[in-house]
Amino acid sequence: MDKADLRIAVLMGTKDGAAFIDEQLRSLLAQSHPLVDLWISDDGSIDGTTAIIEVWQSRWPKGRMTLVEGPRQGFAANFRSMILDRRIDADGYAFCDQDDIWEPDRLESAIRWMQAHDAKTPLMFCSRTATMTETGSLVGHSPLFARPPSFRNALVQSIAGGNTILLNAAARDLLARACARTGFVSHDWWAYLIVTAAGGIVRYDPRPLVRYRQHAANLVGANVSWRARASRLGRLFKGEFAGWTDLNIDGLAVNRDLLTEDAAACLDLFTRGREGGLFRRLAGLHKSGVYRQTVSGTLGLYLAFILGRI
User: Fold this and answer.
1) How far apart, in whole angstroms, are the C-alpha atoms of residue 13 and residue 3?
2) pLDDT surpasses 50 at 160
3) DSSP state of 81
4) Degrees, nearest 5: CA angle 187-191-197
5) pLDDT at 217 exceeding the cut of 90
């Protein structure tokens, strides 16, 4: 199938996004890819967000624009509801936030990569982001990662925001099977975990294809400054990361039949390594082969294991 004939479903979660959603929708309209169905799950906006969406519905030329009511249980549950919604049928599925700006080739770049692979293989494309202020001024970029995406990385790190992810139909079906059994910490990290655990392929593009708007209402920071990175390390050593890891491991446990033998063996070593004394923890971590994308991140991971914070 020619790439221009592929239908992409963009899954957007909204909640009180009236200040920025029009600009985001204009960037979706400017996408070089022609066939885009937009599914918007609004999680209880009270600021006029849905009124803006309804105006756009009458003039969306790329496909269908559908507005649905979200579960009102937070952003993770909102995206989970769209992953599980079988009315959404397409050749590819992109996550979308309400206040970013997409570069015009954001979808086309992912589709071009996917067409070079077997459509039966779960595929996930993601990328670096540029960071902008609330008023739209560019201020930096997310970290540039060089190590390959893999399950051993996904166990301890989410490398890309959901706003950069495109899944092919095989990956979305896989993710929906997993999501039917469990919730998750965040949709981007969970997608990275499940796709790599099941033997799928993840492509991390070093180009920033999305402009991420950093402001007080963001649920997750951009991690572009040393202060932000130090804050994340602080959460690691406080044990917050351990709680997230618990939820991820529990989710993987109920989806064990989806894992490859190698992923299951890695998971077992990592899980056992979180228990017992110091030498057992370090041996389990080493044998599992898990890693973060930077040397400092991996050293921090080992230190957190020594301190029992992961």
Assistant:
1) 26
2) yes
3) H
4) 145
5) no
